[in-house]
Amino acid sequence: MSTDFKGMDVVSIRDFSREQIEHVLRLAEKMVPIAKGEERSVMLEGRILGTVFYEPSTRTRLSFESAMSRLGGKCLGFGEPKISSVAKGETLADTIRMIDSYCDAIVLRHTQEGAARLAGHFARKPVINAGDGAGQHPTQTMLDLFTIRKEKKKIEGNHVVIVGDLKYGRTVHSLSEALAMFGAELTFVAPPNLQIPKEHLKAIEAMGHKPKISSTLGEALKDADVLYVTRIQKERFPDLAEYQKVAGTYRIDMPMLKDVKSDLIIMHPLPRVGEIAPEVDETPHAKYFEQAFNGVPVRMALLGLVLGGLK
Ligand code: NCD
Hints:
CATH architecture of the largest domain: 3-Layer(aba) Sandwich
Largest sheet: 5 strands, parallel
Structural class: alpha/beta
Bound molecules: N-carbamoyl-L-aspartate
Shape: globular
Order of helices and strands: HEHEHEHEHEHEHEHEHEH
CATH superfamily of the largest domain: Aspartate/ornithine carbamoyltransferase
Strand content: 5-15%
Number of helices: 10
Strand order of the largest sheet: 7-6-5-8-9
Radius of gyration: 19 Å
CATH class of the largest domain: Alpha Beta
CATH topology of the largest domain: Rossmann fold
């Protein structure tokens, strides 16, 4: 598979080989000083990124905007469909066709699974999926892999425990398959009705892995190298009563960390709503804020690749 990404849509992590992801991670490493503002770049000067967000976002949208600005480019778009013609009933296809003519690449977050793939059909410019309902979140996965590799030196062989809402959590859907592709060992911890969907489990098993499935953290936590915590995705529950039954099931606090490996890292795509006690932030295990920063260099690398500034 080629590492020439120019013009390519970024919709699902399945669209990428391990070699391609490694290429993104290597380039992202080189972007860190620019992402921190220590070095300047005009690589994407004159280029415009459209950011089209139909769902709330803090990190994803702002880190894309930061990445584009740090490379000398500009952004336009909306983070709130109520202020665009979407509120007047405009279809996704029409909105995308228009924005496509105003910019050089589009970052889309949408409530519906499959929306980014659909947008890719209507846009001539590259479409980057920033989360499609309970579907995929490929750029989050790349920054998650970047974080694990940075903290652990490699991804292969690490025992990654993923806990929380594995059914509706799109970050988990993309990340679990990528981790299997990179040779990590996986344990999925969730209430039975929020476990990892069969589709992803089958894909992971097809890569020769046998992930552990559990509803309790207990034993898995003692042996974990990476703990990836996720939010219960309240907005995806068809019935609020069902959400209330599982809300607050898992909360990582200081007593839980008593017997963990000293070099365990704790990650979270954020936002957290009580899954990790604030005291944990002060421990050397906490890496979620570094993880959020890593979104900038990783998205810089991806933008450089799809817009053709990087090879
Ligand atoms: C995640 C998302 O939107 O899927 N957030 C993010 O992009 N960092 C996770 C979540 O909302 O729980």
